[in-house]
């Protein structure tokens, strides 16, 4: 809407990838090609080059500018996509040279997000990120307009088209931020309600296309959109999952991460990513068959650090073991203390699910109360409450009328059951003095 360009869709694309030394500018070529295909473009040529540092004016050298321009005209391409973040001035200079649209890595990812967003919240978040991205690029779309000229009948306060667009854009951003603040507040209320009911939250995070949604669907029998493409899931989905020793946990499927995830996207998706930051446990799903497995793990941890979720307890889930050549089977990896640190599964083959639930139960159910308790007839109400919680494993009656129950449940759930039955907690659940001083 801001650009004076041909009306035809720019689907024929020339791709440009510069191989920089290890550092912040380095990008993965295969991932770039997957991003382009995910966006629906039809790549007709891939041009690669090596540089130590980007050129300040055009990002690439003058020779490559000429080569790309000739290639664009030869193929009739209307789009040149760079696998790197370009400054607004670099994009403007390149468009002037190529006489066609230029898109950088950030714009490409934003376009994919715009295609994938399905819910009202997701569309708002994507639009916010797009507007923030476009705000620094408005000037290139109005180079044909000069400031309003003075003269008879034209003097006085005036506003250029560019200034009008900037004002409208600021107002739209303000409006979207207000609506997202309401969404954020609603999500916060939902999280507080889960905390009050002591329902643990397990957030699924991981690199894009690691199989998070496939795993989520298989575990919860949900119908979240899952496909072998980048950023298939943008909108968070919550479902309940039954886990031994814990009861029900809330499983949250979240947006996939990617290296150099645009910062504006992280800001826009703050309401969604907050599910991960405030979870009791992170299930970090990893495509164990990917060549860039270790690098992908590192990139996910960088994003978790950016959203202040790096301190949340994490369980690594190595997915897609069915694609490994060594025939690796499902298993749990533990640390020196016996605590689960990783589980090997196959979401598509439904292998290792019981092991995964076991690991989640061990990590979330850190304080399980397991004991035989003796109830006098006067405390029979407690028996009813415990039965409703599914906490009684066995029961027997003594000759004097007492009931002996074998119970297993979370200690905090047992405290609530005692309170609900109107029984002093100390009678069945004596705690050290330090506990009551802390609580």
In short:
The chain has 439 residues and is of the alpha/beta class. It contains 15 helices and 14 strands.
Overview of this protein structure:
The chain has 15 helices and 14 strands. It is elongated. A seven-stranded mixed beta sheet has the order 6-7-5-8-9-11-10, sandwiched between helices. Helices cover 40% and strands 20% of the residues. By secondary structure, it is an alpha/beta fold.
Number of helices: 15
N-to-C span? 58 Å
Query: Approximately how much helix is present in the residues?
Result: 40-55%
Sequence stretches where pLDDT stays below 50 over 5 or more residues? 1-10, 142-158, 432-439
> For the residues shown, what is the average pLDDT?
79
Report the strand count: 14
List the helices and strands and how they pair.
Layout: E1 12-19, H1 29-38, E2 42-50, H2 62-75, E3 79-82, H3 88-98, E4 101-103, H4 105-116, H5 120-134, H6 161-196, E5 201-206, H7 212-220, E6 237-243, E7 247-253, H8 263-268, H9 270-277, E8 281-287, H10 293-306, E9 314-319, E10 331-334, E11 340-344, H11 353-364, E12 368-375, H12 380-388, E13 392-397, E14 403-410, H13 411-420, H14 425-428, H15 433-438
Parallel strand pairs: 1-2, 1-3, 3-4, 5-7, 5-8, 8-9, 9-11
Antiparallel strand pairs: 6-7, 10-11, 12-14, 13-14
Label this structure with key terms.
alpha/beta, 15 helices, 7-stranded mixed sheet, 439 residues
